[in-house]
Amino acid sequence: MTLEAEAPAARKLPFYMRGNYAPIADEATLTDLRVEGRVPDGLEGVYLRNGPNPPASKGVPGHWFMGDGMLHGLRFGGGRAHWYRNRWVRTKALEGAKPMRDDFSRDYTVGVANTHVVPHNGNIYALVESSLPTRVSPELETLGLEDFGGKLDFAFTAHPKICPVTGEMHAFGYGFAPPYLVYHRIGADGTYLQREEIAVGGPTMIHDFAMTRNHVIFMDLPVVFDLEIALKGGMPYAFSDDYPARLGILKRGAPASETRWVSVAPCYVFHVSNAYEEADGTIVIDVARYDELWRRGTKKNFDPARMHRWTVAPGASAARETPIDSRAIEFPRIDERLNGLPHRFAYAPTGENLAADEEENFSQLARYDMASGACTTRDFGRGGVMSEFVHAPKGPSSSEDDGWLMGFVYDGARNASDFWILDAATLETQARIILPRRVPQGFHGSWCPGF
Ligand SMILES: [Fe+2]
Asked: What's the N-to-C CA distance of the chain in angstroms?
């Protein structure tokens, strides 16, 4: 069934309950997978991806972002794809617990764990920005909540940044009541090292942040908590013309009082591609930037985001903004070994028509060469619907870009999904794992080597 062939009744549902955004009803473990091409010999580990998949018993969530998390995974090794499986993250929220207590305080042990899945220090965490991380196994089974020895007592972003030099995990949490923003620093061994309350201008929605070799950068942007929307059960944030847009730059490990704030043109950013420092101390931050998001009174869910570069010179009071490309993109990723370090290449789903409607989905993968400005694309054809692709290096000493890109693409012609492994440099197919079922459009995943 293609999106166009849906029954008229289904059209009345919100976009995230239709087509390949719609949840699936069951959990599966599939072996004897059909593979075209060849799984690379050096790929040893699991690819895991998270996304919302509300069970039918719960009805329609108030927003795409609110559905209970489901993991999808494939195990690779010895040149083979051993299995595909999918599992709900067994959270208290899935069992019906509410994140708000009767006294309106937040219970951080309750969250849908639907946004990302990230390995650190031998653990794998299913993450959503409203609550504590949930530990899961490489076989996608839920193990329990992570509070880092009882020291994490606040929300924890779905986009922690792991420094490839030190192994530290830098993170933050935000909320709609003070403290609005808390910086978390976790040691390479999983020890909770530091908690800092960062003074943002109000209850801003902060989905991601940036890390360089020496700094973390917080995005204090004008999408702010809206009580009226909250009371209606929707995603309780809206764009504000009155809220100043700023970036907060803090030396890693420094006290919050040392945060240096610089202004930036109003916008919204869900996702940072990467950030790094130049030799003179200029901070470079590449982002998927929306002109605005969720303006009240409009019916649009998402305008297009486009690749932009922010640069903040030493001593500057404002970030300089440079558009990189006119394509609509989202979910940009890099070679993770360069997190916080100068990178040249970034990879992101794109398409010509995303701006029109969520149903006009991304069908191409873009590869940006940030040094030359060139962008090459791989087209998955009409009916192909992209998800995020992640990078896996071909070997421990291979250079940037000398790796594989992997992710799911929905094939509307057969109403099922394929898992693609592409050569990162050429975007040519290395392998296609043809799954007999759909993997719904989701959010983020990770290549977890060695698990
Ligand atoms: Fe995200």
From this structure: 36
- One-letter amino acid at 164 equals P
Helix (H) or strand (E) holding 227: helix 227-232
Residue 449: asked if its preceding bond is cis (omega within 30°), the reply is no
Q: Would you state the pLDDT for residue 356? A: 43
Q: In angstroms, what is the span from residue 195 Cα to ligand 1's centroid?
A: 22
Q: Residues, the chain, total?
A: 451
Could you give phi then psi for residue 257, rounded to 5 degrees?
-60, -20
CA of 169 to the centre of ligand 1 (A): 17
Selection from 100, 101, 106, 48 nearest residue 76 by Cα = 48
Beta-strand pair 384-386/403-411? antiparallel
Which tokens hold the place of 319? Answer: 């970030």
Give the Cα separation of 67 and 53 in Å (integer): 5
Contact 81, 75 (CB under 8 A): yes
Burial class (CB in 10 A: 0-12, 13-18, 19+), 320: middle
Query: Mean per-residue pLDDT for 62-88?
Result: 96
Whether residue 184 contacts residue 116, with contact meaning beta carbons closer than 8 Å, is answered with no
Q: Are 336 and 164 in contact (CB under 8 A)?
A: yes
Q: What is the pLDDT of residues 360-387, one digit of tens each?
A: 578 999 999 999 999 999 999 877 899 9
User: For residue 315, how far is its CA from the centre of ligand 1 (angstroms)?
Assistant: 30
User: Shortest CA distance to 210 belongs to which of 258, 276, 166, 165?
Assistant: 276
Kindly give the distance from the C-alpha atom of residue 65 to the centroid of ligand 1, in angstroms, as a whole number.
10
- What is the three-class DSSP state of 133? coil
**Sign of dihedral through CA atoms 109, 46, 407, 211?**
positive
Compute the distance between CA of residue 448 and CA of residue 420 in angstroms, rounded to an integer.
16
